[in-house]
Amino acid sequence: MANRAASYVLAAVCLLVLAATVAEARHPRLVPAVFVFGDSTVDVGNNNDLNISVGARANYPKYGVDFPGSVPTGRFSNGLNTADLLARALGFKRSPPAYLSLTKKTVTPQMYKGINFASGGSGFADDTGRFLFGEVIPMSKQLEYFSGVVKHMTKLSGAKKTSSFLCRSIFLISAGSNDMFEYSASPGPSDDYKFLSGLVAAYKQSITALYEMGARKFSVISVPPLGCLPSQRLRRLKQMGTQGCFDPLNDLSLRSYPMLAAMLQDLARDLPGMAYSLADAFTMVSFVFENPRTDAWSFTELEAACCGGGPFGAAYACNETASLCADRDGHLFWDADHPTQAVSLVAAQTIFAGNRTFVNPINVRELALL
Ligand SMILES: *[C@@H]1O[C@H](CO)[C@@H](O)[C@H](O)[C@H]1NC(C)=O
Ligand SMILES: *[C@@H]1O[C@H](CO)[C@@H](O)[C@H](O)[C@H]1NC(C)=O
Ligand SMILES: *[C@@H]1O[C@H](CO)[C@@H](O)[C@H](O)[C@H]1NC(C)=O
């Protein structure tokens, strides 16, 4: 199979380098670095010092209440997010830090371990989040920042070392939700298929751009059932007066998955050495909804946000004066639009080591070991 052949090529290229750096091979990390792109699901603080409204920042209480030291860091979570926990599963002590938190001096050592470019509120379209929140960093700009890092690395380490380093690293992408929110909120006539085709085309363009810069191993997280977020349950309640998930958004995320899967499969056939792991976030979250209690987890509140107020904890923002639930680990949702650390851990573990129901064609552990 083309996929397998491509994997062999990738393995061969990378083996040469592994042999050359025996000391590094003993390190517990499965890959040399993780680079992160996307939105608030994986942002670790890139928005903190930008001109952005509170809705797309999380650098104030009660965000971070369960983070070490109870500090708000810009993560849209009570604690760690999926990017942090996936990096930990890959053997990293520290999650890749926010690109915009680095200085000219600190970016150099850090670029050999990984950097996070993700920005809450952003999307694939350049204007996603812009009118709603301000200067969020669109995917095109995140890629531009990464391109600068690659140039810097090439200057310091040479083209050969840089490409063998990048081909072993993991590129995590979690994006698309905000494009979907804005499409779903825009008035006037809509064409779902056209929108989704455009979204998947933008995804393809971004992955191709990363590939051209040297990336080979992609961990992609699909769009979750957005209609079941507390904010969208509230939206349905307000618009229709009924309880439940907001179906039009769930339909969009459900329909986007096979399109994304097909695009990645085609791309891996066309780009020599490209490998990927696609996490089906829709199926992952649906599985937790249907199985809130298992040997591995126990969720008692599947609908309401832990931090916030009003119906579903979604009518009033999560901030310093907001009320907080007692059992954070029992809640699926931290605020109106984001998961708790507890469910992010389930997600990260599934992305890392889950079976084919949740991650295809391989999981991130297998991707790392290619
Ligand atoms: C910040 O953004 C707002 C609107 O989004 C704008 O009116 C304001 O001028 C900006 N401030 C700065 C310092 O750029
Ligand atoms: C928190 O949010 C509520 C409404 O969502 C607002 O009324 C209140 O002023 C905010 N508090 C702070 C400290 O920003
Ligand atoms: C994957 O694991 C889930 C949960 O344990 C299980 O329900 C499902 O049948 C498994 N799928 C495969 C393909 O093994």
TrEMBL record:
Keyword line: Hydrolase, Lipid degradation, Lipid metabolism, Signal
GO terms for biological process, alphabetical: lipid catabolic process
Annotated GO MF terms: hydrolase activity, acting on ester bonds
Pfam families on file: Lipase_GDSL
Gene3D superfamilies: SGNH hydrolase
Homology family: Belongs to the 'GDSL' lipolytic enzyme family.
Record's protein name: GDSL esterase/lipase
Organism: Setaria viridis (Green bristlegrass)
